[in-house]
Amino acid sequence: MNITELLNVNLIKLELTSKTKEDVIIEMAKMLDEDGKLLDIDKYIKAVMDREKEFSTGIGMGIAIPHGKSSGVKEPALLFGRSTAGIDYKSMDDELSHLFFLIAVPEESSNEHLKILSQISRKLMHKELRDSLMQANSPEEIITLLQK
Is the separation of the CB atoms in 93 and 64 below 8 Å? Predict the structure, then answer.
Protein backbone atom coordinates (compact mmCIF):
# COMPACT_ATOMS: atom_id res chain seq x y z
CA MET A 1 0.00 0.00 0.00
CA ASN A 2 1.34 3.40 -1.00
CA ILE A 3 1.08 6.21 1.53
CA THR A 4 -0.61 8.52 -0.98
CA GLU A 5 -3.51 6.02 -1.19
CA LEU A 6 -4.21 6.78 2.50
CA LEU A 7 -4.13 10.53 2.03
CA ASN A 8 -6.66 12.88 0.45
CA VAL A 9 -7.09 16.67 0.27
CA ASN A 10 -9.42 16.60 3.32
CA LEU A 11 -6.58 15.07 5.34
CA ILE A 12 -4.07 17.82 4.69
CA LYS A 13 -3.83 20.96 6.80
CA LEU A 14 -1.31 23.52 5.60
CA GLU A 15 -1.34 25.50 8.85
CA LEU A 16 -2.08 23.77 12.11
CA THR A 17 -3.41 26.05 14.85
CA SER A 18 -2.15 23.90 17.73
CA LYS A 19 0.70 25.05 19.95
CA THR A 20 1.31 21.85 21.97
CA LYS A 21 2.01 18.20 21.25
CA GLU A 22 -1.32 17.08 22.75
CA ASP A 23 -3.32 19.72 20.88
CA VAL A 24 -1.79 18.82 17.52
CA ILE A 25 -2.82 15.18 18.01
CA ILE A 26 -6.38 16.24 18.87
CA GLU A 27 -6.56 18.76 16.00
CA MET A 28 -5.46 16.17 13.45
CA ALA A 29 -7.63 13.38 14.93
CA LYS A 30 -10.68 15.64 14.52
CA MET A 31 -9.87 15.92 10.82
CA LEU A 32 -9.69 12.12 10.53
CA ASP A 33 -13.03 11.88 12.31
CA GLU A 34 -14.65 14.49 10.04
CA ASP A 35 -13.42 12.53 7.01
CA GLY A 36 -15.12 9.36 8.29
CA LYS A 37 -11.93 7.43 9.11
CA LEU A 38 -12.71 6.91 12.80
CA LEU A 39 -15.37 4.99 14.70
CA ASP A 40 -14.44 6.44 18.10
CA ILE A 41 -12.25 9.54 18.21
CA ASP A 42 -11.62 9.29 21.96
CA LYS A 43 -10.33 5.71 21.72
CA TYR A 44 -8.05 6.69 18.86
CA ILE A 45 -6.68 9.79 20.62
CA LYS A 46 -6.01 7.69 23.73
CA ALA A 47 -4.07 5.14 21.61
CA VAL A 48 -1.91 7.89 20.09
CA MET A 49 -1.31 9.58 23.46
CA ASP A 50 -0.42 6.23 25.07
CA ARG A 51 2.05 5.58 22.26
CA GLU A 52 3.62 9.01 22.84
CA LYS A 53 4.10 8.22 26.54
CA GLU A 54 6.34 5.29 25.56
CA PHE A 55 8.62 7.36 23.32
CA SER A 56 8.13 10.59 21.39
CA THR A 57 7.40 10.16 17.69
CA GLY A 58 9.19 13.44 17.05
CA ILE A 59 11.94 11.87 14.93
CA GLY A 60 13.94 15.04 14.37
CA MET A 61 14.67 17.15 11.28
CA GLY A 62 11.42 19.02 12.01
CA ILE A 63 9.28 15.88 11.63
CA ALA A 64 6.83 14.10 13.92
CA ILE A 65 4.95 10.93 13.00
CA PRO A 66 2.38 10.26 15.72
CA HIS A 67 0.47 7.04 15.20
CA GLY A 68 -2.10 4.83 16.80
CA LYS A 69 -3.52 1.37 16.35
CA SER A 70 -7.03 1.33 17.75
CA SER A 71 -10.47 -0.26 17.56
CA GLY A 72 -11.61 3.36 17.18
CA VAL A 73 -10.20 3.39 13.63
CA LYS A 74 -12.55 2.44 10.79
CA GLU A 75 -9.96 2.26 7.99
CA PRO A 76 -6.25 3.01 7.58
CA ALA A 77 -5.56 6.69 7.00
CA LEU A 78 -2.74 9.19 6.91
CA LEU A 79 -3.02 12.87 7.69
CA PHE A 80 -0.49 15.60 6.91
CA GLY A 81 -0.27 18.77 8.95
CA ARG A 82 2.19 21.63 8.89
CA SER A 83 3.14 24.26 11.44
CA THR A 84 5.19 27.16 10.13
CA ALA A 85 6.02 28.34 13.66
CA GLY A 86 6.83 24.83 14.82
CA ILE A 87 5.68 22.87 17.85
CA ASP A 88 7.79 21.48 20.68
CA TYR A 89 7.19 17.78 20.13
CA LYS A 90 9.98 16.56 22.43
CA SER A 91 11.89 15.44 19.34
CA MET A 92 15.08 13.41 19.51
CA ASP A 93 17.12 16.40 18.27
CA ASP A 94 15.34 18.90 20.57
CA GLU A 95 14.27 20.96 17.53
CA LEU A 96 10.70 22.14 16.88
CA SER A 97 8.55 19.97 14.61
CA HIS A 98 6.98 21.53 11.51
CA LEU A 99 5.83 18.53 9.47
CA PHE A 100 3.35 16.10 11.01
CA PHE A 101 2.15 12.79 9.65
CA LEU A 102 -0.61 11.21 11.75
CA ILE A 103 -1.15 7.51 11.05
CA ALA A 104 -4.36 5.69 11.98
CA VAL A 105 -4.79 1.95 11.62
CA PRO A 106 -7.46 -0.44 12.91
CA GLU A 107 -6.57 -2.58 15.94
CA GLU A 108 -6.66 -5.82 13.92
CA SER A 109 -4.17 -4.67 11.27
CA SER A 110 -0.91 -6.53 11.77
CA ASN A 111 2.08 -4.37 10.91
CA GLU A 112 0.47 -1.94 8.49
CA HIS A 113 1.47 1.12 10.51
CA LEU A 114 5.11 -0.02 10.41
CA LYS A 115 5.02 -0.21 6.61
CA ILE A 116 3.50 3.29 6.46
CA LEU A 117 6.10 4.61 8.94
CA SER A 118 8.88 3.09 6.90
CA GLN A 119 7.65 4.65 3.63
CA ILE A 120 7.28 8.11 5.18
CA SER A 121 10.66 7.92 6.92
CA ARG A 122 12.47 6.93 3.72
CA LYS A 123 10.93 9.80 1.78
CA LEU A 124 11.59 12.38 4.50
CA MET A 125 15.29 11.58 4.74
CA HIS A 126 15.67 13.88 1.72
CA LYS A 127 16.05 17.52 2.74
CA GLU A 128 14.75 18.62 -0.66
CA LEU A 129 11.38 16.94 0.01
CA ARG A 130 11.13 18.39 3.53
CA ASP A 131 11.84 21.86 2.16
CA SER A 132 9.29 21.38 -0.64
CA LEU A 133 6.62 20.26 1.85
CA MET A 134 7.25 23.43 3.87
CA GLN A 135 6.83 25.59 0.75
CA ALA A 136 3.81 23.82 -0.82
CA ASN A 137 0.77 26.03 -1.37
CA SER A 138 -2.02 23.47 -1.71
CA PRO A 139 -3.09 20.02 -0.51
CA GLU A 140 -2.80 18.77 -4.09
CA GLU A 141 0.82 19.90 -4.20
CA ILE A 142 1.53 17.98 -0.96
CA ILE A 143 0.09 14.80 -2.50
CA THR A 144 2.12 15.30 -5.70
CA LEU A 145 5.33 15.76 -3.69
CA LEU A 146 4.69 12.60 -1.67
CA GLN A 147 3.96 10.57 -4.81
CA LYS A 148 7.48 11.14 -6.15
Answer: no
Nearest CA among 31, 35, 34, 5 for reference residue 100: 31
pLDDT at 1: 66
Instruction: Establish whether 126 is a catalytic residue.
Output: no
Query: Are 76 and 109 within 8 A, CB to CB?
Result: yes
In this prediction, residue 11 has a pLDDT band, given cuts at 50, 70 and 90, of very high
Catalytic one among 67, 98, 113, 126? 67
pLDDT per residue over 64-98, tens digit each?
999 999 999 999 999 999 999 999 999 989 999 99
